């Protein structure tokens, strides 16, 4: 499902409108959201890395999104080598427990590597891997995707430390209760490390692109690309910045946003705070 949330919201299709009324009346229980992480990779321009989800995907099919995905149970493994703000500090930022925060940060770094080839980790707390191309890196990436390799074992096997200091907290979005698949997603921003480059690694995406935020918004307005509300809103915020440093220096207060279904003049609409 693709829509924009502006003004008085977006009119819901009949099926979702009926589900919304059932949920509001207490006849149907909403699906619990799964913890997830999304990372906005930025480079000078400023530009952001976007990937288009395959049309066969069960969630956000055909939408242009940032890299990200659900937290894996093993992402909370305390054996992950760590540098930068602690899980407790991240928990304070995202209003989450230390365990959940650890999982969110690990999922952010892991999913970014899986979906773009970019790895926010290095051999020590002050450095970052310079290159993640090559058959051995690709083998590890695929093993992470099929879950035959845990993130902790991946880092340990290469003698790497997760660099949580390379992540900037950005936002917190929760999928509306009317959806059948729901995610409790924390958004991060991160600069593309020197020497590394994104690449089309396939998987859940069938197309990738670097775009200036304003350009992506224009394409969405023209109907050329589809954006989900969190992506659209994030791009709108980023479009106000002239360079990467401006993005990194912005002070962010993380407040959960969950669009809700409301009835307006007899019509069910989805609106955001």
UniProtKB/TrEMBL annotation:
SUPFAM superfamilies per UniProt: Nudix
GO function terms (MF aspect): hydrolase activity
UniProt cofactor(s): Mg(2+); Mn(2+)
Gene3D superfamilies associated with the record: Nucleoside Triphosphate Pyrophosphohydrolase (3.90.79.10)
Annotated keywords: Hydrolase, Magnesium, Manganese, Metal-binding
Domain Nudix hydrolase: residue ranges: 32-233
Residues that span the membrane, as ranges: none
PANTHER family, A to Z: ACYL-COENZYME A DIPHOSPHATASE NUDT19, TESTOSTERONE-REGULATED PROTEIN RP2
Protein name (Swiss-Prot/TrEMBL): NUDIX hydrolase
């Amino acid at each position: 499902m693709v829509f924009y949330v502006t003004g008085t919201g977006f009119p819901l299709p009949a099926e979702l409108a009926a589900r919304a009324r059932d949920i509001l009346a207490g006849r149907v229980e909403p699906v619990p959201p799964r913890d997830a992480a999304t990372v906005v990779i930025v480079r000078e321009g400023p530009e952001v890395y976007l990937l288009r989800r395959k049309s066969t995907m069960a969630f956000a099919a055909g939408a242009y999104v940032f890299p990200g995905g659900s937290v894996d149970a093993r992402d909370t493994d305390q054996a992950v080598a760590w540098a930068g703000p602690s899980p407790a500090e991240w928990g304070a930022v995202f209003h989450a427990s230390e365990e959940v925060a650890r999982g969110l940060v690990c999922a952010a770094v892991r999913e970014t590597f899986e979906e773009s080839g970019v790895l926010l980790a290095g051999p020590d707390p002050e450095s970052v891997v310079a290159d993640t191309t090559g058959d051995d890196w690709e083998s590890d990436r695929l093993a992470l995707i099929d879950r035959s390799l845990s993130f902790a074992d991946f880092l340990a096997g290469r003698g790497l430390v997760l660099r949580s200091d390379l992540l900037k907290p950005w936002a917190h979005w929760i999928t509306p209760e009317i959806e059948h698949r729901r995610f409790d997603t924390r958004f991060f921003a991160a600069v593309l490390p020197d020497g590394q480059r994104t690449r089309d690694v396939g998987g859940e995406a069938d197309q990738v692109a670097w775009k200036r935020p304003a350009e992506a918004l224009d394409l969405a307005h023209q109907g050329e690309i589809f954006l989900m509300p969190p992506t659209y809103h994030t791009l709108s915020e980023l479009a106000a910045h002239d360079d990467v440093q401006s993005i990194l220096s912005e002070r962010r207060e993380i407040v959960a946003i969950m669009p809700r279904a409301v009835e307006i003049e007899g019509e069910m609409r989805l609106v955001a705070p």
